Amino acid sequence: MFMENNTAVRIREMAHDLIADRGYFGFSYADIAETVGIRKASIHHHFPSKVDLVVATLKEYRAKLAEAAGGLDQSIADPLQRIKLYVQYWAECVKSNSRPICIAALLSAELPALPEQIQAEVQLHFKYLVSWIRTTLKEGARNGSVHLEQSAEVEAQSFVALVHGAMISARALGSPEIFSSITKGALERFQPER
Amino acid sequence: MFMENNTAVRIREMAHDLIADRGYFGFSYADIAETVGIRKASIHHHFPSKVDLVVATLKEYRAKLAEAAGGLDQSIADPLQRIKLYVQYWAECVKSNSRPICIAALLSAELPALPEQIQAEVQLHFKYLVSWIRTTLKEGARNGSVHLEQSAEVEAQSFVALVHGAMISARALGSPEIFSSITKGALERFQPER
DNA sequence: ATCAGACTACCTACTAGTAGGCGTGGATGC
DNA sequence: GCATCCACGCCTACTAGTAGGTAGTCTGAT
Lengths: 194, 194
Prior knowledge:
By secondary structure, chain A is mainly alpha-helical. Chain A is 76% helix and 0% strand.
């Protein structure tokens, strides 16, 4: 049967929560064991090492992103609207304080100290995200629904950086509204006729 | 005599290096002891607890920022030029990989897991930085040397977020140039006549 | 004589990870 | 139909190593 192991999923989800809260070094198998309601050693049965667990968490995270992005590409005709929905998703995460930060961005901050396999996954996430934004912006620029002042590549890089920075500022200042007000301005700048 | 304790300074500087590399949970007194050439226990003589050390490091960091910002305010007439020099400072840090990330931004990522005193220091840093950028942008807007599309507050918040996000993207992608290309665009947008 | 600043030696708590046992449940052989 | 098997999930009990922190001692300069 292909029924995915339920406990493994719960462990991975808990790992995601904890990483979003504290980063790689800030959580332990003991933390996960407690909240999942399992013993420490049992986690090793599903994920032999902490690196395995975090790599799996990042792979799943990227798969979910790809799935969501693909869904938007298919169901929303207007490219700018797709990006607005992406921002709106994060605005809600920030507001409700549920995983209010991109774990790839968080792990990138700690990057030099992380095991190589995790570094590689983090880099893949950034590459995928920037590439999706770039492609979407390009499509919008082509059909005139998006206005770009610089190359699509630089605009995409800037947008990703702004969104991640906004998450961090919102966390630092304890103010979810800051995320919204920062990203609102960036989205307006993409509007063609002003 | 007011000659500040040399060892304490070296410990603090090393702490800064290590935090910029790995974050709060990623370094230990043992790491510092090794590189400073002192025993672990001796660090406790200067900084009784890890919290004390990190708070002191953040206070010094903020003092240095205030000193540099004040210096720019006095010696550089053009507000936009002051901000350009601020960005240039970071561009060089990123390029040379010496403390290539703002430790307040990095610690903000791990914020929920940090001791309260450290959270407070991180928040103070953000408040000071945003306030300096806001004041500087406002001055530029008043004398016509800076063009703002939104309120100075939102523009300042956005700019700080963009710079921090750019540091993180540069780290994730292992490419210092990304920091420069992202920030270049943001600075151009402040230019009044285009 | 004092005292800052370093030391040795130690503590407890926690880390990731391992060894090996136990029970369940589904597949297999007869 | 029934006994056997065995993989799986989870467990207890443990390891070596490291974390931050403490107690008490030595030393050298004022």
